[in-house]
Amino acid sequence: MSFLRRSTYSRSRAPSTRQTVAVQHYDLIIIGAGSGNSIIGPEMDHWRIAMVERGLFGGTCMNRGCIPSKMFIYAADLAVQATETARYGVHTEFHDADWPAIVQRVFGRIDPIEAGGRSYRQSLPNVDVYEHSAHFVGPHELEVMGEHITGDRIVIAAGARPFVPEIPGLDDVPFHTSDTIMRIARRPQHLIVLGGGFIATELGHVFRSFGSEVTVVNRGHRLLQAEDIDISHRFTELAAERFDLALGARIDRVRMTPKGVAVELTCDGGGPRTIEGDVLLVAAGRIPNSDQLRVEAAGIATDDRGNVLVDDFGRTNVEGIWALGDINGRHQLKHMANGEAKAVRHNLFHPHDLRAYDDRPAPHAVFTHPQVGAIGVTEQEAIASGAPVCIITHQYGDAAYGWAMEDTSSFCKLIGDPVTRRVIGAHIIGYQASLMVQLLVQGMHLGNTADEMAHGQVWIHPTLAEVVEQALLKLIDAFDSSSAAPAV
Ligand SMILES: Cc1cc2nc3c(=O)[nH]c(=O)nc-3n(C[C@H](O)[C@H](O)[C@H](O)COP(=O)(O)OP(=O)(O)OC[C@H]3O[C@@H](n4cnc5c(N)ncnc54)[C@H](O)[C@@H]3O)c2cc1C
């Protein structure tokens, strides 16, 4: 059996018929069964649909992204907690991590979901599943495994893939990306991570927590550089206590050694350095899959990074072709891709009542140790905009629960507009920052002022949420004394 499996053939067509069918036509073609998989609904039962997926159903998030990484991170957090209890008079220690058992727990739960999703789609009478890579050959025409398919409507949901930079010698050494490292057979003794963003720091956290030595090599001088500057600084300081950091690094060469790999580099202001480890992880960002999809053959416009350009409603410049999720470069976040899939699903049926993609600030979290949660503008962006802003920082340790925890490194930073009295940026680093920031996402997305957010509800005492309440009160004080605030 070839990679091509189409549910209708298995039921109604003899294989020999396939040779004579030059082009299959569909009402809807979806490329990518990540967020694209949720486009199909019962309202489309009368449509003939092609679902094209070259890899795993559920896409990146489910199979090699958010979900498995957070399953590893949950276990990693437990391992770290076990080493941080002594100051509370509790004596626990981290003994060991059974890596094969951890991998088995993660993928033993995920893989059956992937298989179930695939066979469900194959079982639908109106859906043909093409299990291979597709590329455009014309405006509404794709080639999949030598066959041509056309569609009245096409949804491009083909995502992004790890970016592998040009580094001398990299082609000649074995290395992993986030696509492969979560399934390795043995935990590394010494992991070298190239990159300093959220994937590099999350996976570095996993392996460090389970006992690997971890060196993080980053071109920039700080980790998580896309975050607010204070968050990035604080995270880098804390990361230096756990990881060996090579920052401001220029990699001269990568080569194989009897132990594994060696990375030869020069750090700004320092001399040459060679780092040797047994496993190399390249986590240097992600690039859209539009090149492999040859979108130019359909006349679909992209920006200079290959992101498929879309308007507010997800339409590309070619009539009837939509793009959602990572491939359009608006965000690289699953919750935003899901929202876009919902909008496209609506828009396919309501051409005269189109639903726009969410253009409110996109919240995100980084599940490292400690966590980071953020939404809206950073201090760098606020200053660059030139608009008047108030910026305050409130420490976890200044609220009762943070004090009880004896926290000395976590904080909530708020950036507010003194004219509208709204929060325009919120950045939290510390325990459960991913949850804490949601308190601010709610108020910001509902259009509340800082006053409404702080005074419009009762805050449970003594929760960590009081850090957010007190930060809002501080921001309100800053508004009140700001010269940019409108006269009352
Ligand atoms: C390690 C890691 C951790 C992450 N953690 C988080 C997190 O905590 N929170 C968060 O919000 N986001 C996270 N993300 C990002 C998140 O996974 C993505 O934003 C999301 O999965 C994008 O969904 P998508 O539908 O656009 O693309 P995908 O889920 O990548 O789906 C695209 C699908 O298209 C298929 N495809 C591509 N090209 C072709 C082709 N030519 N022919 C046929 N099929 C094709 C692919 O096989 C893939 O299945 C993480 C990503 C990684 C890598």
What are its keywords?
488 residues; alpha/beta; seven-stranded mixed sheet; 14 helices; globular; disordered N terminus; binds flavin-adenine dinucleotide
Description:
By secondary structure, this protein is an alpha/beta fold. Helices cover 31% and strands 23% of the residues. The protein is built from 14 helices and 21 strands. It has helices at residues 7-12, 17-20, 59-64, 66-82, 99-123, 178-181, 198-209, 229-240, 334-349, 379-385, 400-404, 433-445, 450-455, 465-480, and strands spanning 23-31, 49-52, 127-130, 134-138, 141-144, 147-156, 160-162, 190-194, 213-218, 244-247, 249-256, 261-267, 272-277, 279-282, 286-288, 321-323, 364-366, 372-376, 390-395, 411-417, 422-429. Strands 1, 2, 3, 4, 5, 6 and 16 form a 7-stranded mixed beta sheet that branches. A 5-stranded antiparallel beta sheet has the order 17-18-21-20-19, with helices on both faces. The longest helix is centred in the N-terminal third of the chain and has 25 residues, at 99-123. The N and C termini lie far apart (75 Å). 43% of the residues are buried. It binds flavin-adenine dinucleotide (FAD). Flavin-adenine dinucleotide binds at residues 31-36, 52-55, 59-61, 65-66, 69, 133-135, 157-159, 178, 199, 289, 292-293, 325-327, 332-335, 337. The site of flavin-adenine dinucleotide has 35 residues, from α3, α4, β4 and α9.
